[in-house]
Amino acid sequence: MGGETAVDGFEPEALAAAGLVMAPGDLPYPAMPTPAYHPVVAANWRLDRAFIVAAPGYFTGPRPLDWMNALLVRDGRTWMSLVPGEMESQMPHLAAARGTVVVCGLGMGVMAYAVSARTAVERLVVVEKDPEVVAMFHEFAGFEAWPQRAKIEIVEADAREVRVDGVDFLYADIWPCYRMDCMVPDMQAIQGNIKAPRCGYWGQELDMVDRARAKGVAFEDFGAAHVCDFIAETGLPLIGLEEPRYPELCRRAAANPAIGAKRRPVARD
Question: Is pTM beyond 0.85 here?
């Protein structure tokens, strides 16, 4: 990032009101500011806070955590948390966010907060189809008090059906697992309606490597040309190659034992 620091390019007020998860030193991406979470208990949901000593990343192996974790639990199962695997997987897409951005999938609001905190982002539309998730989010994330609240609109809709005009960047994270075979078709449907000039989706690095390997490409040979092939085949103008090390990072994620190599040929609800 040249002479920049990991927190350059963010609204100072949003940073002051946030937690901060730094990228490991060997990742070329900015830090992620996170909302100040408040414990909440509802019928099927709860938002807990806990200190976790160490956990594996997405591009990296296990590493110590120097932040208080927040965990969103649904029916006794952790649905999402601020572990390195979750945070690192979002960082390339956070770095790419500019102008008018659509984020599909609200979750704990991490990407909503981090993207809207960027000075280069003028407007953010968050698409979430589950009204229960939206209601819980307002409680545990203190949404109305966010310094950058005026930039954000939340739309309750199916991401595959929503239409937003004038979008500069689209990001989708609407799936429960990595390596789901429905991801590319879902993303094609979303992008087909929104038609952003640049887009990305959660776990795309794994799909890129898996598709190349299925064609007989040796793992160690995966490179920028195979990223370009994936973009051409899917018709998705995916981000990634703005960072020269992106093919290497794709290989690191694809070989990560914490993620697992199994593909999931199942449809999303």
Answer: yes
